Amino acid sequence: MVKKDNSNWKSAIKTVGQVSQIGFTFAFSVLISVGIGYWLDNYVGTDPLFKLVFLVLGLLSGGWSVYKTLSGLIEKDE
After folding, report:
1. Which pLDDT does position 49 carry in this prediction?
2. What is the pLDDT of residue 27?
3. Of 20 and 12, which is predicted with more confidence?
4. Cβ of 62: how many Cβ atoms within 10 Å?
5. Distance, CA of 45 to CA of 19 (rounded, Å)
6. Rounded distance, CA 69 to CA 30, Å?
């Protein structure tokens, strides 16, 4: 009986999980920030001001999270 090596499958599944984590982290950072901006615009009475400000903050925080996650993954590979 030939024993199959499942290490390639495990590595592929782990990589897919890490990539999807990066995507979800970025998306949720932006969505939560825009949601806060939407709520503040309704509360204060301004229309696009806080949505735009928090959109930029969400993009920056999402980008920072992606950077930190990718740099951690690169360090593990080395």
Report:
1. 94
2. 95
3. 20
4. 21
5. 39
6. 16
pLDDT recorded at residue 56: 97
CA 29 to chain centre: 6
- Please report the pLDDT score of residue 1 as a whole number: 54
Pick from 28, 32, 25, 22: which is nearest to 54 by CA? 32
pTM, full prediction: 0.77
Instruction: Give the rounded distance of the alpha carbon of 52 from its chain centre.
Output: 19
* Distance in angstroms (rounded) separating the CA atoms of residues 40 and 55: 13
Q: Could you please report the per-residue DSSP string of 30-66?
A: HHHHHHHHHHHHHHH--SSHHHHHHHHHHHHHHHHHH
Q: Which helix (H) or strand (E) holds 21?
A: helix 7-44
